[in-house]
UniProtKB/TrEMBL annotation:
This is glycine dehydrogenase (aminomethyl-transferring). It catalyses: N(6)-[(R)-lipoyl]-L-lysyl-[glycine-cleavage complex H protein] + glycine + H(+) = N(6)-[(R)-S(8)-aminomethyldihydrolipoyl]-L-lysyl-[glycine-cleavage complex H protein] + CO2. GO terms for biological process: glycine decarboxylation via glycine cleavage system. It comes from the Bacteria.
Amino acid sequence: MSINQSGWRPTAPEAKSGNVPASVTGNKALMLEEALIFEIGDARTTGVDFAEGDVAHDMLGDLTRKAPIGLPGLSEPETVRHYTRLSRQNYGIDLGFFPLGSCTMKHNPRLNEKMARLPGFSDVHPLQPVDTVQGALEVIHQLAHWLVTLTGMTSVAMSPKAGAHGELCGILAIRAALEAKGEGARKVILVPESAHGTNPATAAFAGYSVEDIPATAEGRVDTAALKARLGPDVAGVMITNPNTCGLFERDMREISDAVHAAGGFVYCDGANFNAIVGRVRPGDLGIDAMHINLHKTFSTPHGGGGPGSGPVVFSAALTPFAPLPFVEKQGDHFALIEEETAGEHHAGSFGRMVAFHGQMGMFTRALTYILSHGADGLRQVAEDAVLNANYILRSLDDTLDAPFGPSGPCMHEALFSDAGLAEGFSTIDIAKGLIDEGYHPMTMYFPLVVHGAMLVEPTETESKAALDQFIAALRSVAERAKAGDAALKSAPHFAPRSRLDETLAARKPVLVWKDTAPLAQAAE
Ligand SMILES: *Cc1c(COP(=O)(O)O)cnc(C)c1O
């Protein structure tokens, strides 16, 4: 099978470049087309030559493989080229603007990487004697101090390994606190519509029944509805702040007071702490537990499923129930408080979230980010993130529908809807059009409370010039969608693959390559 047979052809090369014919190879200038490795390699060839082994017998017995393994044989340069070509089709934060923002990927200062790669941090083993990892424990301890100070809370559990894991940690602490008070019968967690999807999933996973609290027309929690639902069966609330509509929940203090008066606890989803760090302390809002996504707020690379870290800060009321282990400074020594060393003082701890201490690499990156910004710099991070989002919101709200635009400024995310596009055009057409303009699309169809949602998070690191170019691109694509430009329906035209059937791909993924031609025939 050759590349030519399986290669692609541009769907509409005339669209922008006049009547330029497609290339014979399928390549576009120096951007090379690439077939599947099974199509360029062949199971009957091998890229390496080994002499026949002289072992008379092996010890595998019946388990010896009888048929070829069926992997394509490629030489070293063929293999290197295959993966390098594929890597060039990747879009990443080091190439261009990523409107998915910190939720998926924001600029990660190289200094963080340099620090995380210091052998004293990168080569430590979690079972090493604590006397040999004092520096690593000091990093954890210092970072914990910053997180407690920035949030105005009492303590922090560093070990949870992602935001959702942190949510579970917080809910387990709430459950332990309720059980200690003899109130384990509280079985309901209230979750507003504007919360992140992981919140109801976490509450359900921990065995609670989840009840929705509606949003107001301006995109915030309906405080009156929430208060009306409080009662002796409610264990607590989970509120995302800033919420998924990109808005700050202004009634937070009032909500916390009401929940506490009714005997419940307040969990805050603080994954978006980057929008408020240095400006608001969750501890002042009456929050009992909140996770912080180190991999969002304090950079650290995490797109495509990379490692996360979701420490949870606790109020004084929940501190006795926080999980082990944690680092404690005893004189000049950093001690690891575990089951054996916890003693009476930590008898209420609900247990552990992980086998060891958490994500050392993420701790090092986050502390580097924090120390290199300083307290005033962190405050500016939040201000710049919010300023950039509002610049996008106000630059485009004359062209795109901004459902909560009238509610006032947004936080770190600008939210648009598909209202006002021509009949038959939707958010997906805008996203595909943006790809042709050289941009990874924004978050689409989320939050669910907004029809055809488009959520743009520019983050703090983008320059005004970068934002202006993105705004011009999005404006142009939006105008084409409003005018009903048919070419937009088949975009992207310039990507290696044009519009795919994403529903079919998601519902019936083909994960195993099958040779369509029988071997004998393929050999001819
Ligand atoms: C990203 C995010 C989460 C989940 O965090 P993970 O690290 O992906 O588990 C939860 N809530 C909000 C608001 C988020 O943005």
